[in-house]
Amino acid sequence: QVSPRLRTPLLPVWLCSILGRYSVLFSTDSQLLSHWKAERVFHLYFYTGQQEQTQTAHLTIDTHSHNWEEAPSEDPCSPGKRCPALEMTIRTKWVGATVSWNGMDSFF
What we know:
The chain is α+β, with helices and mostly antiparallel strands. It has 3 helices and 5 strands; from the N terminus they run H-E-E-H-E-E-H-E.
């Protein structure tokens, strides 16, 4: 028998397989599960469990930003540049979202 909390978690958690490695993407905001307005600007945390990751990455996701208002040189995913796999994974759920690594180097 599966516990009801495993079927409906209190906080949003995603188990990801990115580039053949398993990782966890999660939020501490329970509103992200039930209230669509919480998906405007929110925070996600990313943990790989790999020894090269010394701390959990804190990401800020903005689903209503306008990429065309930014200078072209600022967009890390512009044509000819490689976009981090994690950002591409996040955009499978929130299309067009911008991902801020909050000063941390994108390592995945």
